[in-house]
Design a protein that fits this description.
single chain, two-stranded antiparallel sheet, about 325 residues, about 40% helix, 13 strands, 9-stranded mixed sheet, globular, alpha/beta, Spore Coat Polysaccharide Biosynthesis Protein SpsA, Chain A
């Protein structure tokens, strides 16, 4: 099974210096390693050429974000499985074997995520994907080991193989034939939650998304766009809404869309109370962008063969903020 590990880079020489060595050390005997560069203006490429000559380089002409960056780069990379991994991820010895073994064993499994722990606090799960992602009734993403901002300690509670709803883009394994047959990431997302949409479409196409707890990686998180950045707030709210427009089943569509408008309004008020009005403005811009692209995404919705019947019985907002349930076990 030919495997390509592809690191998307934009002006990230410092991150490559810190994290590329572990990827090369623990992967190069099994997989080919690539750096896909989004038109960096620093010395990233010359650094890789000088210190890691075995690493292949794909140079994209512009910095078009995560989605288009990978779509462009993967056109020229031939492999059975792609591992799309952030430049701020440290991998561990033997991390590839459990993932590739499951791909070989289960032909219908198209996407896999390993266990994601926090690089800065290795006892805890990491925000971006933790122990695998799910979606609640209103389209809000959450994870095993991470509900909103509450992160669980890793006690081995998610060391299993499990079916999940979405896999984190921080370390995202996907069969190349599935990636290309579905058109890759939706480039209208630019960055954030495009992996949720791709996982949703993958399940619409009849494939499975899995989590493999025997494979562990450590993610810094926020190294390229920090949580306090209002543009990140804009992308997360806008793209979460786009996921709803494209993918929510017909019988729930109007209810979920209306509910999200109300709940996002509540979130905007919360930012005002916290004296962070710039994030409230980011939510408003997210909604303006939604209205602008509403019919465009309705057209994309019509192309889907079916709408995957996602986790309709859980409102993570209600359980977390009203009932005080902070862990995945309490939610389930």
């Amino acid at each position: 099974m030919k495997t390509a590990i592809v690191i998307l880079n934009w002006n990230g020489q410092q991150l490559l210096e810190q994290f590329l060595p572990s990827i090369v050390r623990f992967s190069s005997d099994i997989a080919e390693v690539y750096v896909a560069d989004n038109a960096s203006t620093d010395s990233s490429i010359s650094y890789v050429k000088d210190f890691f000559p075995s690493v292949h380089i794909v140079q994209n002409p512009t910095n078009a974000g995560y989605a288009k960056g990978y779509n462009d780069a993967l056109q020229s990379i031939k492999a059975d499985v792609y591992c799309l991994i952030n430049s701020d991820v440290e991998v561990t010895e033997g991390w590839l074997n459990p993932v590739l073994d499951l791909f070989k064993k289960e032909e219908n499994t198209a996407i896999i995520q390993p266990k994601l722990l926090d690089y800065k606090n290795k006892e805890k799960f990491e925000y971006a994907g933790a122990g695998g992602g799910f979606i609640d009734l209103y389209g809000y993403p959450y994870c095993r080991g991470r509900v909103f901002n509450h992160l669980e300690k890793d006690h081995g509670q998610f060391d299993n193989v499990a079916e999940i709803f979405w896999a984190s883009g921080a370390c995202f394994f996907i069969r190349s034939k599935v990636y290309h047959s579905l058109g890759g990431f939706d480039e209208d997302y630019f960055a954030h939650q495009e992996e949720v949409d791709l996982c949703w479409r993958t399940q619409n196409a009849g494939y499975d998304v899995k989590y493999v707890g025997a494979s562990t990686v450590y993610h810094v998180g926020g190294a390229t766009l920090q949580e306090s950045n209002p543009h990140k707030t804009f992308l997360n709210f806008r793209n979460s809404l786009l996921n709803v427009i494209k993918n929510v089943p017909k019988q729930w569509f109007l209810f979920v869309v209306f509910s999200r408008l109300v709940l996002d309004g509540v979130a905007g008020m919360k930012f005002i109370v916290e004296l962070r009005p710039i994030h409230t403005w980011a939510i408003l811009k997210a909604h303006f962008s939604l209205y602008k692209n509403f019919y465009k995404f309705l057209k994309k919705r019509k192309k889907l063969q079916r709408k995957y019947n996602y986790n309709l019985h859980t409102s993570v907002v209600w359980q977390y903020f009203v009932l005080g349930r902070k862990t995945f076990k309490q939610l389930r």
